[in-house]
Write a structure and sequence with these properties.
single chain; four-stranded antiparallel sheet; disordered N terminus
């Protein structure tokens, strides 16, 4: 298995020691709680989400952090595992789910302050036991989806008490890695993206799925619903594609960069920002998406971001939490 094929390049910053330990003995990652560390906000973080007004971030070694002051200070949460965490979803202000290596799925009912293990490889009986989960999305506090390597596709309809393998519901016979799952707010539409340019869509809340015609043969790292009529898909080689019809058709957006793009959001000001590997930040001031590329001086990869009230954004990735000022 090539790590570059399985994960966004950003995640390689873990280092070979941690990856080797996790692969050789995944049970130890599940049995061992995350170590409390004053440096956790500067460690590799891979996703960030809002739980109401609280920001919550996840990352390496089971680190989960939360902030109640717009990212100025962070508190490390109590987490029962030390596995690498890769995805996060909060359908409401209190309840959230995180996923990661060793098939880990965690649940919180107190806005990310404490977490409990819902599922891991140790309790899994399917043939994909041992495969990392890469992303998670919940429509509400009952129905959710998790995706991962080798076509790993799970669904719950009881708030995560049980998870079913629904990989047979999509046309993925080669078990291409699934990197992203996301619903379009206010609709019944859910999208899944992954390697080899695969894109799947459900318009009935995940009951049935179709393959979308893809504009790209490389890996998609993420999908972002920017507005009701603007959907972005992005990934390897600095590629960004836009759709105005929920994925029926796509057109390429010029970015001027070749580093992988990992996330994109619309800020409160209306500015659209996409971020990626090697410190890449793309900014567009309207939906025409005339991106202006910049590169952070530290050139550390940015994996995810969330907008801040009043402008700007908070980003996570290599080097942990950083603030992207308004207008930058």
């Amino acid at each position: 298995m090539k790590l570059r094929e399985l994960f966004s390049i950003s995640l390689l910053a873990l280092g070979s020691v941690y990856i080797t330990e996790s692969a050789a003995n995944p049970a130890s990652m599940v049995d061992r709680p995350a170590v409390m560390s004053v440096k956790s906000s500067r460690s590799l973080l891979t996703d960030i989400a809002y739980a109401g007004k609280r920001l919550v971030a996840v990352g390496e070694r089971g680190h989960i952090l939360y902030s109640d002051d717009q990212g100025k200070t962070w508190v490390q949460a109590k987490v029962p595992v030390s596995a690498m965490l890769t995805g996060l979803s909060f359908p409401n202000a209190q309840e959230g789910w995180a996923v990661g290596h060793s098939g880990v799925i965690l649940y919180t009912s107190d806005a990310g302050a404490t977490w409990r293990l819902q599922r891991s490889d140790k309790s899994a009986t399917d043939e994909k036991a041992g495969v990392p989960l890469m992303d998670v999305w919940f429509a509400d506090n009952v129905t959710g989806f998790a995706v991962g390597a080798y076509g790993y596709f799970l669904k719950t309809t009881d708030g995560g008490t049980t998870w079913s393998d629904v990989s047979a519901s999509i046309d993925n016979p080669d078990e291409a890695h699934l990197n992203a799952v996301m619903g379009i707010p206010g609709t019944s539409t859910i999208l899944v993206g992954g390697e080899r340019g695969i894109l799947f869509r459900s318009q009935d809340k995940g009951e049935t799925w179709i393959s979308l015609s893809s504009p790209f043969e490389g890996s998609f790292f993420g999908i972002s619903p920017i507005s009701s009529d603007l959907l972005l898909a992005y990934g390897l080689q600095g590629r960004v594609f836009r759709s105005a019809d929920q994925g029926d058709s796509w057109s390429q957006v010029q970015t001027g960069v070749t580093s992988g793009i990992n996330d994109a959001v619309r800020l409160e000001s209306g500015r659209i920002v996409a971020v990626g590997n090697a410190g890449v930040v793309l900014s567009a001031h309207d939906s025409s998406l005339n991106f202006i590329p910049e590169t952070r001086e530290d050139r550390q990869s940015i994996v995810a971001l969330q907008p801040l009230p009043g402008g700007g954004a908070v980003t996570v990735g290599e080097g942990g939490v950083k603030v992207l000022p308004a207008g930058k």
